[in-house]
Write a structure and sequence with these properties.
The complex is a heterodimer of chains A (about 170) and B (about 180). Chain A has helices at about 5-30, 35-50, 55, 60-80, 105-115, 120-130, 135-140, 145-170. With about 170 residues, chain A is mainly alpha-helical. In chain A, helix 2 (about 35-50) packs across helix 4 (about 60-80). Mean pLDDT of chain A is about 85; it is low at about 90-100. In chain B, strand 4 (about 155-160) and strand 5 (about 165-170) form a beta hairpin. Classes of the chains: A mainly alpha (about 170), B mainly alpha (about 180).
């Protein structure tokens, strides 16, 4: 590779990284629940991007970044020591005096509930409900059929609902 | 309690994932089922909370410097190269080991000189009890009805282990060869 080509590659890479760093970090954090793990995962994602920049060839690398982020986070989770503690700043769903759930509490609770979901369902909720991707995009990123996304995501949402209900039941 | 058969439809509807005709059928049901309407409201609240998470500014720092530092770090020895060379050395060692290995033959036992075969004269009556021949080279004399004794054939088998000696005592009928 010539020096000019190398400089061009570097410039393209830095531009993509700057534009999508938040996307990758946030997705990794939602999937892993731990800041340091999310940063490690994001670093790996961008290193893979650098190595495979020549293969991307598409104007919007988001789908590729999401897919690699999900895959890297899956690897991180499988290497994790069981019962690894969540980031202390990760919402813990502290109950308030009022029996009804405030919006902030609900946000914390569903965040906690995400951790209880199976890996695949968690990825679908993060991509569809948090990152706002379409069912079609989620299916393409995860390499599954759209009907699978619909089926899994409805189960995931019902599980989250049960998680919130259980918390409220114990609190009363 | 909401209707179990409508729960998945309600979960999909909360995220706007129902097809138009599915949504129409669900909404017809919701008109007559207050429990399912309650479930819809609760599911939508969760969906709104999830959506709001996507808008949050998370203080996760930046990995830009770390990534660039890794890219700029000089590679002295390629990781892939190191694994390739290690694998080649391992394969070469295995091949050499297989070529040089010779089959090991088990040691063949040495057979001692076979005891000579000879005829003893008949003995009318033994003067003392016969010795126990176990573990020794003593002969066991067998008698026929007339009191004639036939010398057993003794075969001593030496083994590679000097502490192990095998004796074969083969009784013969008196008067037979």
């Amino acid at each position: 590779m010539t020096a000019q080509a190398g400089a061009d590659r570097r410039a393209v890479f830095e531009r993509i990284m700057a534009a999508h760093e938040r996307l990758v970090l946030a997705t990794a954090y939602r999937l892993l629940g731990h800041r340091e793990d999310a940063q490690d995962a994001a670093q790996e994602v961008f290193l893979r991007l650098y190595r495979n920049l020549h293969k991307l060839g598409v104007a919007d690398p988001r789908a590729w970044l999401y897919r690699v982020t999900v895959n890297v986070c899956r690897d991180v989770q499988r290497r994790r020591v069981p019962q690894a503690e969540l980031d202390p700043d990760y919402p813990a769903g502290n109950p308030s005096a009022d029996a009804a759930l405030s919006f902030e509490e609900r946000k914390k609770l569903v965040t906690r509930g995400l951790e209880e979901l199976p890996e695949r369902q968690r990825a679908m909720v993060v991509l569809r409900d948090i990152e706002g991707l379409s069912t079609k995009e989620v299916a393409r990123i995860l390499g599954v059929a759209e009907v699978t996304v619909r089926s899994q995501i409805s189960m995931a949402r019902l599980r989250l609902k049960k998680f919130v209900d259980e918390f409220l039941r114990r609190r009363v | 309690m909401s209707c179990p058969e409508w729960e998945h439809q309600i979960a999909l509807d909360a995220g706007g994932d129902l097809e138009p005709d599915e949504a129409r059928r669900l909404h017809e049901h919701l008109e007559v089922c207050p429990d399912c309407r309650r479930l819809v409201d609760e599911m939508r609240e969760n969906q709104q909370a999830l959506g709001a998470l996507g808008e949050e500014e998370l203080a996760l720092g930046s990995v830009r410097e770390r990534v660039l530092a890794r890219i700029d770090r000089p590679r002295r020895f390629g990781f892939a190269w190191a694994w390739g060379i290690a694998a080649a050395v391992a394969v070469a060692g295995l091949v050499i080991g297989l070529v040089r290995t010779e089959p090991v033959e088990p040691p063949q036992p040495r057979v001692a000189v076979q005891a000579p075969h000879f005829d003893l004269p008949p003995v009318a009556k033994p003067k003392k009890p016969l010795a126990n021949a176990r573990g020794s080279e003593a002969s066991i004399l067998s008698r026929d009805r007339q009191g004639a004794v036939a010398e057993p054939m003794v075969v001593k088998l030496l083994t590679p282990d000097p502490d192990v000696v095998i004796y074969w005592l083969i009784e013969r009928k008196a008067g037979t060869e």
